[in-house]
Amino acid sequence: MPAQPTGQYITTSVAGESVEAFVPDSLPPRLAATDLATLDGPLRAAEAALARLDLAGEMIPSLDWFIYAFVRKEALLSSEIEGTQATLVDVLAWEQADQAGDSRIEDIEEVTNYVAAVNHAFAQIRAPKGVPLSVRLLNDCHRLLMEGVRGAGKQPGELRRSQNWIGGSRPGNAVFVPPPPERVAALLGDLERYIHGEDALAPLLRVGLVHVQFETIHPYLDGNGRLGRMLIALLLDHWGLLRSPLLYLSLYLKQNQAAYYRWLSAIRTEGDWIGWLRFFLDGVAEIAEDATRTARSLYARVSEDRQVLLATPGTTVTAIQLFERLPEHPVITMPLVTRLLETTKPTAGKAIDVLLRAGILAEVGARKRDRLYRYRDYLRLLD
Ligand SMILES: Nc1ncnc2c1ncn2[C@@H]1O[C@H](COP(=O)(O)OP(=O)(O)OP(=O)(O)O)[C@@H](O)[C@H]1O
Ligand SMILES: [Mg+2]
């Protein structure tokens, strides 16, 4: 029995086998003030790191690429196991050129799907008539996240209608059996109300609670990890802690996966929310600091290169215009440049030459047609 119960087990039957499914209590859990007090230090540190990141965010030359960079780092961590990996340049090249047939495509799509889903969610939440943070929005994001990648066949965008389990070959020997399917909608409804309701608890702690509750409900057949991690970014915005999706906690959760999974279980089996919250806060602080450093160095890089370009003999107005577009398009081709700047091939070619001479652009590989150029030092910082 847990020291403090955080839900109840109910017996259900799956394929003729009787299993104990866990139904978590609604948030918030009862947390003792003395236990919460032990989180004061880590909480303040994490909040301060987020505030610094929020400020540094204004310096970021391109939000999308910043997010891509973090998502890709995580994709790299997981794909090392699977033996494939997408480099940032692969992702970039894929974005603008048709690279169908590339074996790394699924890795790349998982990266681009996250950016598409998180951008969709922020756009909806910001729009006066957009979908608010809700189960409906989560379903929409789930569909975007799962498009064409692992789990795509498992009812994307839909709450599960069958019993699932985590770890083990069948529910009977699983590490964890989430709530029965007929309880999922109501549990998510409760969670939605908690997200929009009042609680005296510090909002950052509430983010940590909601993430775990979401994983415990495990509402989808697959992709619960991916969506639950994205939910963290949406909640940080919702509670005014970070105005754009600059914090990508997935990296931390994947680097510390064993501990992460242990905490998810410990909450259920021992009622140990405090241990999880501490682990969560440490991750927020660590990732926020890392992201702040990256944001600052990107800004410094672009400022310095702008000076270099202005001092480069023979620089042109088009070269300067192209340079200003590079943070959004750090990998370019001649056709892309003529399109972006609505200019002719010779003018675009001249601009590319100037940027090559200034050492800002470098050629990727040695293609004869549609040569690829990258904004070298900028990509190095992101990589
Ligand atoms: N013991 C556990 N109790 C509750 N949740 C768990 C437990 N172990 C893992 N999880 C959660 O389940 C997620 C995996 O679920 P699922 O396969 O549906 O998601 P995914 O997005 O496909 O996977 P991944 O997180 O590996 O990218 C993990 O990321 C974690 O958040
Ligand atoms: Mg999965």
Care to describe what's here?
- There is one protein chain.
- This protein is mainly α and 383 residues long.
- It folds into two domains: 7-60 and 104-294, Fic-like fold (Orthogonal Bundle), CATH 1.10.3290.10; 300-382, Arc Repressor Mutant, subunit A.
- It has 16 helices and five strands.
- It has a three-stranded antiparallel beta sheet with strand order 3-5-4. It has a two-stranded antiparallel ribbon with strand order 1-2.
- Strand 4 (361-364) and strand 5 form a beta hairpin.
- The site of magnesium ion has 2 residues, from loops.
Proportion in helices: 55-70%
Q: CATH topology of the largest domain, anyone? A: Fic-like fold
- Give the beta-strand count: 5
Within CATH, the superfamily of the largest domain carries the name Fido-like domain
- Domain count: the total is 2
CATH class of the largest domain: Mainly Alpha
Share of residues in strands:
5-15%
Q: Please give the CATH architecture of the largest domain.
A: Orthogonal Bundle
User: Any idea what the radius of gyration is?
Assistant: 23 Å
Give every kind of bound small molecule, once each: adenosine-5'-triphosphate, magnesium ion
Shape: elongated
Task: Give me a quick take on this structure.
With 383 residues, the chain is mainly alpha-helical.
Which key features would you list for this structure?
three-stranded antiparallel sheet; mainly alpha; Arc Repressor Mutant, subunit A; Fic-like fold; binds magnesium ion; 383 residues; elongated; binds adenosine-5'-triphosphate; 5 strands; 2 domains; 16 helices
